[in-house]
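Table S5 (text form). Sequence records supplied for joint modeling of the two-component complex.
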Amino acid sequence: MKKYLKPSVFILSLFPFLIITYKIFFNQLGPEPVKEITHHTGEWTLIFIILTLAMTPFKKITKLNFWISLRRMLGLFVFFYATIHMLTYVVIDYRLDLQSISKDIFTKRFIFVGFAAWLLLTPLALTSSKKAMMLLKDKWKKIHRLIYIIAILGVVHFIWLVKKDLTEPLIYMAIILVLLLFRFKFKKV
Amino acid sequence: MKKIKYSEITPEKIYNNRRSFIKSIGVTAGSIAMSSLPFAGNALSEEKNKYTSYKDITTYNNYYEFGTSKSDPYINSQNFKTKPWSISIEGEIENPINISMEEISEMFVSEERIYRLRCVEGWSMVIPWMGFSLSKLLSKVTLTSKAKYVEFESIYDPDQMKGQRYPVLNWPYKEGLRIDEAMHPLTTVVTGLYNKKLPNQNGAPLRIFVPWKYGFKSAKAIVKIKLVEKMPTSSWMWASPREYGFYSNVNPNVDHPRWSQATERIIGNDIFAPRVKTLMFNGYEEEVASLYTGMDLKKYF
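The corresponding structure-token record, covering 490 residues in total, follows.
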């Protein structure tokens, strides 16, 4: 049973990628295709951030250890979707027009925090292996606590880009705050 | 839909106007289609890309009265009642009037007007509207010397308009123009599109369209036109004065605080089509720039 758990979660986690690939090839993206890819991958990045952050609380609540065995893979999916999201903006939307992109990064706050969040994710992805974990010892934990900051930056990125109706980003914000509060509570006990 | 009424006194002039509109717009639309298709030079694809499809125009809308997502207006507006409908023209005028839709279609001939629509969100369409100049409607009333601005008010009917049950914007939707902007021949009262009756999700039965301003300046489902002395506060100015100014002219050099306005995406193009450069006053610079001579457009955004 346990043997199949990780591969199944892996395949399920690929679904959002498969859906958008299908939409691209079968012309199902709607009137604003680039925006559709950007929103889809951005949304799934946030969902995977939530899933990653949920594993530790789930372990504490259910007293089952297998949740933790999924955490690294889910975290890598955060990086996977965030990277597609960022590349959609840089390559498909702005066609590597680095001048416009860098201007956007430094003058548009939602792009600034989004880009910062992606940059902060890279060291986490690079040090995700067991080997890196052993090499870095205590430092590893510290580095990987960056995910808390990344989660906040990600949701602020969403809040700042929305024009008026904040319902959706605030739902993400609420979930992320609850998950972060869990850390506080358990640390004190 | 496009009947020429005997009651219309100057059909020939309108006809000529119409030709000149098509001429001036056609050039713009054509050049956009070309720049969006870097590898397709043939006339056929150029023609095909000239107008945004009826489907996209009628299913991809910002109309918060019917919901905040782009597909909401189409879904939620199908049972919206547009009959009976009348518009009151009031405020700083000698003779306030209430005019029904029937009277409007008797009195004014709608002509085809192909204009570009640029949304503040960075996308654009080319739309074959049906309509006539607002100045014609306003010529039915006598303005007082205090009539400096025009305020448009959209319908308030939360029973029919789901979105109005939430305070997303300050309902009813209000927009405004300076009197000279309102009198400009490009400022259009829209009654239809693609030679058909105006669909509910596009602002039926009657909306305003101001081609050189961002889309939100063009109020939908109008019930009141009020002439006023002081600059009106529009719904979007009310919502976020830092982001939305009264003028809201399309201007690639003045960024929205949160996103760039230098380029835009053309609705209906595939994912490999590049962004195109946004034009000053949405390409109507020649026609409208003189309205703003000497004005600091960064300050009066």
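Note: DSSP finds nine helices and twelve strands in chain B.
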